[in-house]
Amino acid sequence: MSAEIAQIDWGRAWYDAVRPAFDSLAPGVPFIDGFNTNAARLGLQNHRGQPIRFVPQAELPPNTAYEEFIGATGCVPTRENLHDFFNGLVWQTFPLIKRELNALQAAQIAQAGVGKSRGPARDAATIFDENAALLVLRDADVGRALAEGLRAHRWHDTLFARRALFGAGGSAQVLLFGHALMEKLVAPRKAITAHTRVLFAPAAWFDLDWEDRRAWIDMQVAGQLCTEGLVTSAFTPLPVLGVPGWWPAQDEAFYLDDTVFRPKRADKNANQGGKHD
């Protein structure tokens, strides 16, 4: 497992959100042990108030759904692979969001069983958990214009012409949440696309330190999930390597590549956007 972790380029901006959790792990300690040390220190809990513990995958009982087990016990079955490694880092970074996603999934399983199809609510929660990015925009005209542009797939105008608005000191910041998305980006490809949830933040948020910004996002999104639930139409696509400053050679031609930056489709699946990978 250490060889797989060594492949991760922690200098990439797409790992900014979970890098502090990784940095807090004691060197040389098996990562599940490190996760449990952090979970206890942070007081992580599931929606029943049970402490979160990371346990080997073998502790998941036969014929028990993963989400159901976490919701019932607080135990997160964890394999020694990058997928579950990133999942544990996200639990340590956005624990309130993870808790609400698990509560939603567990409630759906209790109501309808596992079945061959997850159903729309579980589908949306799974997409969020695995592949979401969080786009925080300044709650002003400029932020709303950026959100409109992305939803309309005006890639050139939003990501190239207005690239100065992204990143430190700007009006838009992107943070990754989905652990499968992070795993894919260990070997980055231009087509990798996030399902993005847009948040509008007050201007003061952009001047906060990382811990306060993280806590605000965690509380805001968890509260929205608790009161509003989740549907797939809440997402807008965003090719991750297209986030300004996240990839070299982001010239005009980069954004005119319509095999990745596709125009909006005028059908019911438009919210899923262009090519996903």
How would you sum up this structure, described in words?
α4 links the parallel β1 (53-56) and β2 (75-78). The longest helix has 19 residues, at 210-228. The strands form 2 sheets. The chain has a 4-stranded mixed sheet with strand order 4-3-5-6. α3 packs parallel to α5 (82-93), α5 packs across α6 (95-112) and α6 packs parallel to α11 (210-228). With 277 residues, the protein is an alpha/beta fold. The chain contains 12 helices and 6 strands. Helix content is 43%, strand content 12%. It has 2 domains: 2-121, no CATH class; 127-263, no CATH class. It comes from Massilia aerilata. Pfam families: DUF3025. This is DUF3025 domain-containing protein.
Tell me the strand percentage band. 5-15%
Please mark out the parts with pLDDT under 50 across 5 or more consecutive residues, or reply none: 268-275
Shape field: globular
Write down the overall mean pLDDT: 93
Main beta sheet strand tally, sense and closure: 4 strands, mixed
Number of strands: 6
Number of helices: 12
Protein name: DUF3025 domain-containing protein
Pfam families: DUF3025
Summarize the helices and strands and which ones pair or pack:
Blueprint: H1 2-6, H2 19-23, H3 31-42, E1 53-56, H4 66-73, E2 75-78, H5 82-93, H6 95-112, H7 120-131, E3 132-138, H8 141-151, H9 155-161, E4 172-176, H10 179-184, E5 193-201, H11 210-228, E6 236-239, H12 252-255
Parallel strand pairs: 1-2, 3-5
Antiparallel strand pairs: 3-4, 5-6
Helix pairs in contact: 3-5, 4-6, 5-6, 6-7, 6-11
